[in-house]
Design the sequence.
């Protein structure tokens, strides 16, 4: 009897021990599985973080995004940056220097790698851009020869204005025997565009001296261009040639001409930028007769800017002053640039 009892107790102890060992192993396996899952989640997060940080971070501020060539360039550049794993924010400062300074300050606070600035006022942005460079941020200046920039992407704006004026003068001489009334849509609020406007006026005086400039007013976007042209026609209904510092004003002038019923083979609008709207109007034999393509379309501009940004952020040595190419677009070659 005692022997049987001892055997029973022994069997129960073995059973309890086996259950305890099973539970212990199970807990160890669960803990091990939890550790593996946690490690995988941590590795995944690290990979995601690395992917997010794999490209450059760019902040860009431009004068006026209602200008089609500027807005399309910004959007194309954003696409290039993001395609390489980076991030980009582009902003319209509405031609307000104080607003542009605030935008640059925000880029600095967000620790971007590079800032692309299309300055409204050179003197106003120099100090804040100096602060950006002190923080290790690369600065790319679009159209202005800034002191506090790593690259300045330039146009000789006076000479560009002379190209616009020369083409207008050729039209005046060929179509109007050298004599007609001319309107100029300039934008003296921005120094480089003041130079461009001066180039236009000087070229017309030099190459079509009998032409008469009867109106000068500022317009930088289509809305302003149309409104200003409507006002010009009220005082000077015989205007036959309009010279504009940029495509925004030129597009608006063309619309005003059509709305006024003044579209004939003798009226012409001459400008720079060669926006898509301008080139479509050239193809359709509307008032836009010529525009100067600077570097290329928005995609071409973005490709060039991005190429320089890559070198800057990588720490490569680059020339500070880079001059842009110009191409005269007329009815003869518009199909090469307007697809």
Sequence:
């Amino acid at each position: 009897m005692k022997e049987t009892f001892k055997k029973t107790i022994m069997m129960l102890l073995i059973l309890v021990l086996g259950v305890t060992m099973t539970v212990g192993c199970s807990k160890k396996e669960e803990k091990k599985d939890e550790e593996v899952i946690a490690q995988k989640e941590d590795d995944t997060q690290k990979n995601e973080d690395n992917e997010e940080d794999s490209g450059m971070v760019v902040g860009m501020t431009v004068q006026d995004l209602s200008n089609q060539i500027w807005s399309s360039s910004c959007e194309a550049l954003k696409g290039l940056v993001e395609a390489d794993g980076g991030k980009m924010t582009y902003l319209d400062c509405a031609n307000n220097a104080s607003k542009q300074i605030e935008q640059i300050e925000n880029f600095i606070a967000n620790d971007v790698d590079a800032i692309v600035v299309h300055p409204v006022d050179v003197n106003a942005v120099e100090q804040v851009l100096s602060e950006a460079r002190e923080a290790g941020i690369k600065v790319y200046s679009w159209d202005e020869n800034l002191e506090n920039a790593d690259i300045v992407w330039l146009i000789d704006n006076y000479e560009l204005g002379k190209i616009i004026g020369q083409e207008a003068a050729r039209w005046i001489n060929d179509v109007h025997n050298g004599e007609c009334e001319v309107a100029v849509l300039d934008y003296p609020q921005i120094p480089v565009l003041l130079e461009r406007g001066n180039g236009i006026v000087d070229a017309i005086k030099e190459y079509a001296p009998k032409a008469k400039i009867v109106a000068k007013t500022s317009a930088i976007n289509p809305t302003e261009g149309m409104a200003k042209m409507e006002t010009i026609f009220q005082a000077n209904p015989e205007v036959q040639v309009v010279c504009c510092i940029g495509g925004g004003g030129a597009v608006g002038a063309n619309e005003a001409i059509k709305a006024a019923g003044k579209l004939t083979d003798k009226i012409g609008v001459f400008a720079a930028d060669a926006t898509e709207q301008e080139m479509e109007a050239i193809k359709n034999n509307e008032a836009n007769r010529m525009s100067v393509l600077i570097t290329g379309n928005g995609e071409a501009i973005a490709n060039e800017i991005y190429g320089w940004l890559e070198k800057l952020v990588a720490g490569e040595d680059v020339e500070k002053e880079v001059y842009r190419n110009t191409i005269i677009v007329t009815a003869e070659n518009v199909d090469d640039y307007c697809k």
Confidence is low (pLDDT under 50) at residues 12-17, 19-33, 43-52. Residues 184 and 216 are 5 Å apart (CA to CA). The longest helix spans residues 2-52.
